[in-house]
Amino acid sequence: MSKVWRPVSGVLLAAGLLTACAGGGAGGADDASAARGASGSPAVSVENCDGEKVTFETPPGSIVTSNAAGLEILLRLGAGPKVIGTGFPPGKGTLPDDLAGLAAEVPVLGRTVIPKERLLGSGADAYIETFRPARGGHAGPRPEEFRAAGIRVVQLRSTACAAERSGPREDLSAVTEDIERLGTLTGESSRAREIVAGMEETLARVGERVGSVPEEQRPSYFVFDFDAGTKELTAVCGKQVANAVITLAGARNIFRDCDADYKKTGWEDVVAEDPDWIQLAVRNRGSEQADARAFDEAEAFLKSFPATRGLTAVKKERFLRIRSERTTTPGVANAESVEQIARTLYPHKFQDVR
Q1: Contact 146/127 with Cβ under 8 angstroms?
Q2: What is the overall mean pLDDT for the chain?
């Protein structure tokens, strides 16, 4: 069956977040350069998706994050005291205990998208933007309004730069580069390298066991974005971070060939691919109990919907309950999800590893 792709319109949330041009970019620590500012303090410069250089005379001391992804990276870097606000805050149970307490101290400027007035009046000197607003899809501050408020926007290139990327994403280099860029931005480069080293250790461990599995022997995998709607599906495509997670875990994303981060599609395309495994990708509901109910609802839908109840994965109950944010937004959880998926799909290859 031929696939007919239709562009996403409006706003797509991934991690309870806005979507727009999610995807990757090259560039990371090498894009962040240190110089000497006029005051003699280190100046920091990073590059955004469009090639614009964003320069701070001194490392920013008041940061607002657009969602939990940027917030978590900053907390892991030890830069939590510099964060004065966030949108899309992490729900209960979504962060490790040592980070959850720190996150709870960060003022919530918006349960979802931060209202324009609150963002501009926050007093921040840096705004970490995980996803760029879709054209016409979100009435956020304009560039000149950010400038007037003294706020410089720093984009996470791993999720904000899909339009500039060519080909599918098959590794997490753009994510680790974002972590290193934020480490440079906040003066926490050493800690960033430690975090990246830990992720690379996890990926190497998985790669040793599943990296050599031939393409034709890899199970097919479908990310069911339950919250994006069930009448018209949202496909997680090759340019999305999740495609790298799936590939590194030894599986084949059934929508890896669509040349985007997300696109709209129909159930007929899923039926034609008949995936071996389905990820029930629900977004943060605010608590573990609420997340569990959402997973139950997603599974019940697939088991009852006429178009899907006959799918191989549904009949064999091959479901993975992994929140959307852990695969579609940048962070340490991407590497953790690679291992979780690989262990589920290839349990015999991990018998020697706890």
Answers
A1: yes
A2: 88
